[in-house]
Specification:
Blueprint (H helix, E strand, L loop, with lengths): L2 H11 L16 H23 L1
Amino acid sequence: MNKEEVIERLKKDLDLPNFKGRLDEKDYSEEDYQKIKTDLNDYFENYVRNIEN
């Protein structure tokens, strides 16, 4: 996957239609994608949700 494909997939998988991530121009493997997705999810749970509460 290239950078644009990863961003589009994250928008769909995480239901973030306005997501504008900064990623390097490179080819991403499925493992890379899953790591990025997990990191974003963890960030949301640990930081964003804590601010809401």
